[in-house]
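Handout, tutorial session.
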Amino acid sequence: MKTLYLDLENGISGDMFLAALCGLGLKLDSFEKKLKQAGLVTELRAAQVTRRHFQGWGLEIEESSPQPLRHLEEMFEAVKALSLTDQVWAHVRHALVRLAEAEALAHGIPLDEVHFHEVGGVDTIVDVAGAFWGLSELGIERVVAGPVPWFEGTAETCHGLISLPAPATLRLLEGKPVAGVWADWEIITPTGALLLDCLVDEFSGFPGGTLLRQSLAFGTNPRGGGLRACLLESLPAETRHADLEAVWILESHLDHLSGEELGHALDVLMDEGALDVLFLTGIGKKGRPAGSLRVICTEESLEHLENVFFRETHTLGIRRRQEMRKTLPRTACQVYLEGVDAPLQGKAYNIGDKKFCKPEFSALKQAALENSTSALELKTRPVLK
């Protein structure tokens, strides 16, 4: 598994992130062609630059012509013209909605009145679509980042002088770990905050693995430092802990499904090969009842179950991460209960030097029907052997 680690000490913007991917080996030729066909840009230039005696990567975007102000639906139409894969398109759409929501809340206006002037309509499309497309092209499956740097200062906008971080940036950084730094200018743009919100699977220290490549990317502000990105390959599980196995966690927050639809989705995911499913209830945005749907699966079933997840829930984004699990060996067994003539199918396992054998609940239910009692009552009866 390929993991991308982001060192955020000097901040992040959309163009810095895409430039960092270019430093890791991403080629923009095919993406540039998509943008040209959509009438958005004539040229993308990712090139090495030197700043403060360090060499890194920078990105320049040359627009094909003056672009109109775009509202959310116009942004969707522009991205659709790029002919991205369904998965990349779903991620980009979700990210644009998140950015529009943050801007709408910051300015106190309805979602459909948000127009992408301050964050730059074309730049936003290039940065956001390019980020998800680039991760897919490089085969990166997990993004980890260090603490988010806090910064201060002011910035001149079309709404006047505002304090930093910008209101939309602040909303997108909610729930993220922050650390104070010395910067008094905008080192995290709204688009940069959006990428942290939608791309990062975990905020933690440097992850383990084999370092494949590293890159340093600079933004447009000459005062700013660089975004350092490291591409790693996770060590095979068997080389770390022989008794552990790798599993994948797929997760999404849902607030739009009825109880029947949610129950059906859980059943289908199990039928299609999930190791386990779980729905954790809570309260989502705008005070709506919501919950987190979590699916555990193997590497072999990951892509299939992710597609099933999208199909059965119509969520617009799924987080994925790899975790290690340790399981107890188990074997099939027969359980004899007091007062029940036929043996019940069960599973046997050991914890330490003690052996346990318990009946499957489906077997308990069937025995309860045959013996005119409840499964709960049968469960309390002594095990004969």
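The second record follows below. Compare its token runs with those of the first.
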Amino acid sequence: MITVEEIHQMPLHEKLQVMETLWEDIARHEDVLEMPQWQKDLLDERERLMAEGKAQFIDLDEAKKQIAQATH
């Protein structure tokens, strides 16, 4: 098994490759992953708002700005 220290020493491109491999493996088993009800409810609500044309979107830079402000 790979250690945390080994991960810290990996070049960025290798870390990204490992992450991609992990996500692909997890995605193959998504049928056994249980989503909490609150997440299902939130996604359903967002889909409803989109279908009704009431969803509001912001660009990625603005989202990052809002997240940074909320965490400081």
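Points raised in discussion: The chain has two domains: 1-33, 34-72.
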